[in-house]
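Why does residue order matter? Because the sequence determines the fold. Keep that principle in mind as you read this record.
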Amino acid sequence: MYLKQITAFITLASVLFAAQVFAASDYLGPDRDGSGNIVPTPKGESCVEETSYMRKNHMDLLLHKRNETMRKGIRTENHSLTSCIECHATPAEDGKIARITEDKHFCASCHTSAAVKLDCFECHADRPVSAFKKSSLKNTDSDLLQILTRKQALLPHAVLNQNTQLKGDL
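Structure:
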């Protein structure tokens, strides 16, 4: 008697497991590489550097860019964090761009799996300027929002942080 119950239980468990496997395989989700990190749909023809080079050296490039900008006043778009975010921030199906606190954010997906702290976005915007709605800024800041949508390389010290607060001098 118990043998029939055990056989029925094992059969039912196998069917349920198979159903879950097939259902999960239909979920496409965001594109991911072999390590499970999110690969955004490219917005341009190619990145400013080869993918393998960027994975290994992006922090050195960003630090060098930071030093050129902050200490020497040299502002270019090549290797700038703003340009990276403009290209790599990919909207979800609902049109919203993931925040740095979400695992779907391009930077967070790799940094979380590598257990590397991301402190760039304590000051810098984690989304492109186009992702900020005018309603999230005060009406008096609407002119500043228009300025922020111009080339970021021309802006001195103006950054929208994670809380959509305006920081810096223009």
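The chain has five helices and two strands.
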